Amino acid sequence: MIGSRLSAPPLTLTIIVIECVVVFSYFLFYHPSLSFESTGFVMASNNVCSNCNKREEDAETKLLNCSVCRTTKYCSAQCQKDSWPSHKASCTKLGCLQLIAAIQANDASTVTRLSKTKRVLNGKVDYTPPPEEHMPDPYEMGKWTALHECVRKENKEMMKILVSSGAKLEIEDADGETPAFVASTSQRPELIKILLDGGANPNAMAQDGWSCLMMSARGGDYGTTKALLEAGADLHHGGDMFGRTAFDISSQQASGDMGTRMSQGESLEEAKAKHRRVAALLSEYAAKN
Ligand SMILES: [Zn+2]
Ligand SMILES: [Zn+2]
Predict the structure, then answer these.
(1) How far, in Å, is the centroid of ligand 1 from the Cα of 92?
(2) Once rounded to an integer, what is the mean pLDDT over residues 190-197?
(3) Range of 23's domain?
């Protein structure tokens, strides 16, 4: 209680000292904007060459961070080289997670820096995203890549950086899905356009036989369906367990014979009209080819 603290000076002094230690420890160890370097406080365990265990004060030069993960220190280029076989896997995993975090934070300079390292740009990592309001219990993304994350977060700007840095467009996650395939379910045509303009395969298929076009047709997504067709998507490519193609799926959605997928806030009639428009577009392309 405040009253008792004020009435007992020795105890107050003790508490103030404890609080100072707690606050100081917080800034020293946990405050995100302060690193050991910037505060001038250096812990011995964090300032040892990862290869030869030489301490900074015993080394001839200041220890240098690995330029990719920036967490591992070396006293010399030789030590970095010698430790590379054992550091490579953890460095790549850490780099991939840092790149994914930078995409989430819309941090263009970090995304640009990490994209220069191909093993990170095209690296795969098992990754569970942080909980969000619409997904409080996220599931693990197996063999996830930075480009997949751009699609998931619908981040066009970061996607453009990755694509211009040479990200592999046909890279697959654990379910065999390419970024373009994931984008075909997003209802955001501008995402798949960036990938298709970069040369992504419009006929990419998931392991279960569903094609990009089947996914966009199922969602009644006119813009994505049109972008796929313009990029050369094959109407007859792929098929589900009933042998249905994109056109079959779209027609059934439009008629409501097997139920109609509706978006949030959409009436059944609005949904059917949306699917009819996609079915007409597919018919138009079928007549042309
Ligand atoms: Zn060393
Ligand atoms: Zn590293």
Answers:
(1) 21
(2) 98
(3) 1-41
